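Reviewer comment 2.1 asked that we show a complete input and output for one of the modelled complexes. We chose the glutamine case, as it is the one discussed in the main text.
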Amino acid sequence: MFKTIAELSQELQSKKISSLELTQFYLKRIQELDKDLNCFITVTEEAALAAAKAADEKRAAGQAGRLTGIPIAQKDIFCTKGVKTTCASQMLHNFIAPYDATVVKNLKQAGTVMLGKTNMDEFAMGSSNENSHFGPVKNPWDKERVPGGSSGGSAAAVAAFLAAGATGTDTGGSIRQPAALCGITGIKPTYGRVSRYGMIAFASSLDQGGPLARSAEDAALLLNAMSGFDERDSTSVDLPVPDYTATLNDSIKGLRIGLPKEYFAGLNSEIAQRLEAARHEYEKLGAQFKEISLPAMQLSIPAYYVIAPAECSSNLARYDGVRYGYRCPEPQNLEDLYKRTRSDGFGNEVKRRIMIGTYVLSAGYYDAYYLKAQKLRRLIRDDFVRAFKEVDVILSPTTPSPAFPFGEKTNDPISMYLSDIYTLAVNLAGLPGISIPAGFNNHLPIGMQLIGNYFEEARLLNVAHVYQTVTDWHTRKPTGI
Ligand code: GLN
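Response of the prediction step:
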């Protein structure tokens, strides 16, 4: 059962296993391993078993698709009807949504079985999962180290075989960075490809949902189900969704791959070596490399850490103790209710972002910070638009280092923010990006990132998949797991 979704799907189809057996297998592993790893905030055992039985019946009736009966985990940022959705915050620790997010609905319709809701950084703010109200998640490759964030629970769950695949969200790197640190594959689609309806907002102009999986093929299967126009999300784009699995094996002969020189200057030498090795693999497959320049990428950290807090301060204004979520005990008056609810309900990082965001949006500073950051964002996007006239995809590192030890960056927000230096620009530009395993530094996985032009997820998955047909990094398993 330690297999990819594509393999499990075949075994379900050939009746070698049933979805019930598979679901029981994962539930048992969660029971045994998750006390320690802490990937899940909520496990929905009963509902999962019922959904697995229903999936088996559907298959028996000849109505199964490739995802029917596949057990997956949902990041606890996606609203799930009747099941707690906490966003890893005290503010929502008891919140039960009255509806399913579109992503959840789509994956249910595709026949997947939800095992539970995964741990994350509070409101998706963080790069290490240390900002969760429910405690940190451990990296299955080294339990002294972080799994990355904010989708750390999803990434660790897939890496540790506690789920066949999982959902994540990526505002500045939160799918790609944890995928890299946990040795799995994660794709952040083009902004607008996957509906944000029912996905709790952090920074709305950057947030995008996507899958975390063991291989590009699995990511393609999940993305097929997750993508598509949704009239309930005004930023959802009404474009046809190609079958992402159909082009996985296309030849990449003649493909032009850009190497942005700014991403390689001063890069960690083990990561640089792994990327060099990947370059050779790609050349053997017929791709051509070209150095490109994305000079504005240096501006992405300052631009992001103005824009994301600005949007978060606005989005999180709704948590006021009045309508839903946490309410402080015995409020004396309205102001006391707001103050204590928000002081107790939010963790430190969330409060830091709300304060920064409120500041950069305030009348006297709006032009100097927020407007300026929007201009930088435009420059960053223009760089990519220019680059994609010369190349088809861009290859870069995903992270500046492999998984780091717990506590290493918690007292230094700037060094934590730097973990996303290679991923942020993609969100600011709204482009798709994928991280895939590219090797190891001792026992720690190293990821590499491929960036594509708008709505070229199929191409990214193809380029990732062909690499995975000639390498086996993505098939390695953490020892003792
Ligand atoms: N680590 C980044 C942040 O803290 C990105 C998080 C994300 O993509 N959700 O904001």
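The mean pLDDT is 97. We note this here for comparison with the apo prediction described in Section 3.2.
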